[in-house]
Amino acid sequence: MRAAPQAAPALFRLLSDSAVMRAALAACGAPLALADALAPGHPLTYANPAFDALFGYRRDEAIGQPLEALIPDEDDLRRVLAQAPARGLSAARRGDGTLLHVEFTVGPVRSGDRLTHWVLAFSDCSELQSLRAELGALRAEAAR
Fold it and tell me: Which residues constitute the domain of residue 21?
């Protein structure tokens, strides 16, 4: 009977810590998502509001979307996942199908020695990509 009083505080602390972590992720201004590393297609299991805003999803609409649908360049995605923790630059697909240039960082989550999830953070590089293209066009024009 003594195990129950000791287990209850530990369970309360675990649930409380979990609630704090969920609130911190939701309040974070950086677009973040979690993907299931074990399931086929690596479906998203969590996306914070900043992710929804960047990618144009409504609340909880991103959940269940395969990671490969978000990052359509499978070579970029595989390379970064294989090297995680790692960073990559790629085009990403928004909820409406348009492409967005992003830098993404991937970190593995493990339970013991088993990979269970990927944590992904995104940064919009579309403006930078646009400026690079404009600069390239200006250089080409100046070279003529």
Answer: 1-28
In the numeric block, the tokens 């609130």 are attached to 23
List the one residue out of 33, 62, 37 whose CA is nearest residue 48.
Answer: 33
Give the pLDDT confidence score for residue 11 in this predicted structure.
64
| Domain shared by 77 and 22, yes or no | no
Total domains in the chain come to 2
- Give residue-wise pLDDT tens across range 81-126: 899 898 888 888 888 888 899 998 999 999 999 999 999 999 998 8
Which residue is associated with the tokens 């404009």?
A: 134
State whether 3 and 38 are in the same domain: no
What b/e readout covers 102-127, taking b as 16+ CB neighbours within 10 angstroms? bebbbeeeeeeeeeebbbbbbeebee
pTM for the model:
0.75
| 3 and 24 inside one domain | yes
Tokens (6 digits) for 30: 């950086």
Residue 41 and residue 23 share a domain: no
